[in-house]
What does this fold into?
Amino acid sequence: MKIVIVGGVAGGATAAARIRRLDERAEIIIFERSGFISYANCGLPYYIGGVIAGKADLTLQTPESFYRRFKIMAKVNHEVTDIDTQNKTVSVTDLKTGTSFTETYDKLILSPGAKPILPDFYAENERVFTLRTVEDTLKIRAFIEQKRPKTAVVIGGGFIGLEMAENLAELGIKTAVVQRSNHLLPTVDCDMASFIHANFRYHGVQILLNANTEKLTANGEQISLETDNGNKLNADMVVVSVGVTPENTLAKKAGLALGVKGAIKVNAKMQTSVPDIYAVGDAVQVKHFITEQDAVISLAGPANKQGRIVADNICGLNSEYQGSQGSSVLKLFDMTVATTGINERQAKASGIKYEKVILTQNSHAGYYPNATAMTVKLLFEKGTYKILGAQIVGYDGVDKRIDVIATAIRAGMKADELKDLDLAYAPPYSSAKDPVNMAGFVADNIKNGVVKQFYFEDIPALRERKDVILLDTRTPFEYMRGRADGFINIPLDDLRARLGELDKTKKIYVMCQSGLRSYLATRILMQNGFDAYNFAGGFRLYGSIKNEEMLSKQCYSCGMYN
It folds into this structure.
C-alpha cells in the first residue's frame, strides 16, 4: 500500500509515524511545501522573543531523521499542485529546481493546515510580517537582530497576536495591539478579558480596541497605520495576525466537498467526499463537542489526534474523531489564560440557555507562601447543568484546573458534580477545597436554591430601582479604597447586629471582594427573612471591568505612537 501525505507538521507527520507503527511494509511519502517537515508551530513566537534559543529546537524531525527512524520519505520544498482523483495521482513541483512530476497513491492524506488571512489593507513590505511557518519566524527574528526596531504594532488580538506582542515587549520593543472588537482574545468573554488588558498595560503594551485597521503605508523606515476611528500610528515593524483560514486550494481544485469557512468536509473517520482521500488538521471541518455544530478549530491537539485516527482507519482499525471542544492555554507575560468549551457569546449564538458561576480562588492554600488569585468562570446549561465551558485567568495552577474541567466535560459530568471530584491536595499545590470543587459547590447551591446570583451587567438597572438595596460587605478600609456606585457598606462581621437598618420589603444585592463574604451575608439575610442575591465574581471582577472601561476610552489619546 502506498500512502501520499500532503503537508507535515502536526497532522501529516503524526499520521505518517502512526501508519509506520501499524504497517512496516507500507510505502509512505510526505510532500511538504515549506523547508521543515515537522516543527513546533506553537513555539514560533518564543523563538522570536529569544525564549527558545536555537533554531534547531523548533525542529522536531528532519527528513533525514524521519527516514532513519521510520523509513518514511519526507520531501520538503515540494508543493503538490493538483490531485487527479480518477487516476489517483498527485502533481508535484520541486520548489528548488522548478521541475514537476507525478506521484501515484493508494491512499491520500491532506494536511495542508491553514494560511494567514491577508486583509484588504495588507501591504507587502520588508517591515510588514505574518507568522505561520518557520520561514516566517526566521525572517522576523533576522529583521529584529539586524534593524533593531524600537516600536511595533501587532494587528489582531488572538493567540498568535498576543504571544507576538508579549515577546516583542519582552525584547524591549514598545508594542501596541490593535483589535477590531471590544476585547482581546475572542475565546474568553469581555469580563474575563479585562484581566488580560490590565496585565498587558502593566507590562507597557498599548491596546487599541474597537479599532479597525484601514490602511498600511510605507513611510521611510517606518510603517504608518490608520484606523477607521481616525487613529494614526507609526512603527518600525508591523505584524498582521487577524486570523487564519483553511488552506483548501488543492481540495477545491479536486472537487472535494467543502464546508464551514471553506474547510474540507470529513466524516468521523476523517474521510473526505472522495474515496481514499482523507484530511486532517486546521484545514478540516469538525463537529464541536459542546454544540454539535460544524466548526473549524485550529489547534495542535486535535490535529495530532486526527492524524492518528486516519492512520488507524487506513491500517484496518476502527477509529473515529469525537469532536473538538477547543481546550487551550496561553501564557501572557506572568499570567496564564485557559479555556475549554464555549463562552457566553457562543452559547447565545447557539441558542443555548445557560447559567454561570464566577469565583476567585487561590492557586494553593492561602497560608502557604506565594499563593496567587485565579478567577474561574464556569458556564452550564440552564436546567440540565451540563457543563458548557470554562474560562480561567490567573497565574499558577490555571492549566491544571482547566484540564480537570475539560475532562469533566468529556465524561459528561454536570456542573454541580464538580464538587464530588477527589482531587490531589497539599498546601503548595491546592486547597482542601480545590477551585474546581468550589465551582461545583456554587453550582450545587444554585441548583438547590441556597444562593441566587446577579452579575455585572445587572448593576446599571439595579441602581435605577427603588425596591432594592445594594450592599457591600467588605471592611470599611476596603470600601474606602474603591467601591461600586450606589452600594452602602455594612461589613459582614457587623451584619447580624445591623439587620434592623435594612428594609425587608426590598431585595438586597450583596457584593464583597471575591464573592465569599457576600455569599455568607446572603445566607444570613435569607435566613432572617430577606430576599438576597450574591454578586458573581466580587469587587475584584467589578473593579477590573470598570477600570478597563475607563482606560479603553482614554487609550486613543495616550500618545505612545501618535
Notes: The domain at 453-535 is CATH 3.40.250.10 (Oxidized Rhodanese; domain 1).
